[in-house]
Write a structure and sequence with these properties.
alpha+beta, Glutamine Phosphoribosylpyrophosphate, subunit 1, domain 1, Rossmann fold, 2 domains, seven-stranded antiparallel sheet, six-stranded antiparallel sheet, 17 helices, 25 strands
Length: about 500
């Protein structure tokens, strides 16, 4: 996150306007013991492009004490598609990072992995998530004389390692991890090892994979999701456990668990939206989970209709599950244009209003005269939902009903998801009936929180000990919001339909 500004408020950036979605901030990928380590990292980052589209970087260890790095703004293919760039990243070990900026500058100085030369040698680190006490730690470090070169919270790790009194690099990193609060999955590289770590609650994902090497030790992979293992031909070994630190070196893999064991709180939104559908997270297939969520949504809130239509692409699996459960035909009533990047800056309000049609267009033959159920994964500000509904009605739909495969999003996320400020979340200050009127649908329903848990095989939410991090729906922040005491004080559970 950018520590110079509010990390969850994006007033005019990608989360606003016609791109009315949440965004994960980062994806990480690391390789140990492969002849083309940097090339594998580039491929892995390409598979993780959905987790961050604003910048990317790779650090490769060419030889003992020799590290090379290349970082850039833009997409992975644009940054690492040049053979000369990849030729400048030799070595058998490398780590990489995709960044999705929240607010503030998208500048090269903030592109990860960050690299520093310590007395023990070179060290590179990148992480997915947010540290919730980074501002407090940064202020203390600055008072001690530390000079920060970026505005990202990742640099806090660098300075905590630098001032640690431990001599071993692993002990220094663990010393740093014990001082930070927040949600993180971390990949680091130094002369002797590739390191992976997850926060004690395991909010953000991290997986381990391996690849055989002819006549030698295997190659090891660390990645945010299993889809990144698939693209390089690696086999999934296991999830890195919450609170676990894994060290991979020429002697193999070893594990440390320096934190006291606590119940995990994996991010429930990974199942709903963030993870790629072909990934397996925490032992559960994402695609199958989204279909089950859609089926539960249909059981809870079905209405008579002629067609079930997904809002592409994220609404497709849930809509399939919904249609199968209720026996209503699934149709592609909205077509997405996959060749549109970030919408250009439109010169007038009238043209700006048409911007949603750059990404979505109505399939009139499927919609005209039909009672339509639109299925989407979430409603954030509601701006895109309103435009989609208008487009479907303009195509001749007789009725438009919207069903959402997540509960109402009433609270901001501080744990690695780019979320608008709470006042901009439509569900934070409107009930379901008011939201239905604002987006212009005949009816609106969200899956209940218990229904979401049931769809994920939990039998309902255990309110005494929730199985997932669901703070965006409940205000139940499992990790202290040290940098935001006002937000922490008013974080109260929302009254959700179906609870």
């Amino acid at each position: 996150m950018d520590l110079t500004t509010n990390p969850y408020f994006h007033p005019a950036g990608p989360a606003a306007g016609d791109d009315d979605k949440f965004h994960d901030e980062c994806g990480v990928f690391g390789v140990w013991n492969h002849a083309d380590a940097a090339a594998l990292v580039a491929l892995g980052l390409h598979a993780l492009q959905h987790r961050g589209q604003e910048a990317s970087g790779i650090v490769a260890r060419a030889a003992p004490g020799v590290f090379n790095t290349h970082r850039g703004l833009g997409l992975v293919g644009d940054i690492f598609g040049d053979a000369k760039v990849m030729a400048g990243l030799p070595g058998r070990a490398a780590c990489g990072h995709n960044r999705y900026a929240t607010t503030g500058e998208t500048a090269l100085r903030n592109v990860q992995p960050l690299y520093a030369d310590f007395e023990f040698g070179g060290f590179a680190v990148g992480h997915n998530g947010n540290l919730t006490n980074a501002k407090v730690l940064r202020q203390a470090l600055v008072k001690r004389g530390c000079l920060f070169q970026s505005s990202t919270d990742t640099e806090v790790f660098i300075h905590l390692i630098a001032i640690s009194l431990y001599t071993n690099v692993i002990d220094r990193l663990i010393d740093a991890l014990k001082q930070v609060q927040g949600a993180y999955s971390l990949v680091a590289l130094h002369d002797g090892a590739l390191i992976g770590a997850r926060d004690p609650l395991g909010v953000r994902p991290l997986v381990l994979g391996s690849m055989p090497n002819a006549g030698g030790a295997p190659s090891w992979i660390l990645a945010s999701e299993t889809c990144a293992l698939d693209i390089v031909g690696a086999e999934f070994v296991r999830d890195i456990e919450p609170g676990e630190v894994v060290i991979i070196d020429d002697n193999g893999l070893r594990s440390q668990k320096p934190f006291g064991r606590v119940p995990s709180r994996f991010c429930i939104f990974e199942y709903i939206y963030f993870a790629r559908p072909d990934s397996v997270v925490e032992g559960t297939g994402v695609y199958a989970s989204r279909k089950l969520i859609g089926a539960e949504l249909a059981r809870e809130s079905h209405v008579d209709a002629d067609v079930v239509v997904p809002v592409p692409d994220s609404g497709v699996p849930a809509a399939m599950g919904y249609a199968s459960e209720c026996g209503v035909p699934f149709e592609l009533g909205i077509i997405r244009n996959h060749y549109v990047g970030r919408t250009f800056i439109e010169p007038t309000d009238q043209i700006r209003h048409l911007g949603v049609k750059l990404k979505h267009s109505a399939n009139r033959a499927t919609l005209e005269g039909k009672r339509v159920i639109l299925v989407d994964d979430s409603i954030v500000r509601g701006t895109t939902s309103r435009k989609i509904v208008e487009m479907v009605r303009h195509a001749g739909a007789a009725e438009v009903h919207m069903r959402i495969s997540s509960p109402p999003t009433t609270h901001s996320c501080f744990y690695g998801i780019d979320t608008p400020s709470r006042r901009q979340l439509l569900a934070s200050h409107n009930d379901v009936a008011e939201m239905a009127a604002l987006i212009g649908v005949d009816s609106l329903a969200f899956i209940s929180l218990d229904g979401l848990y049931r769809a994920l095989g939990q039998g309902g939410r255990n309110n005494a000990q929730p199985q997932f991090c669901d703070a965006c729906f409940t205000g139940d922040y499992a990790i202290p919001l040290t940098d935001w005491p006002a937000e922490a004080a008013r974080a109260e559970p929302a009254l959700l339909p179906g609870r």
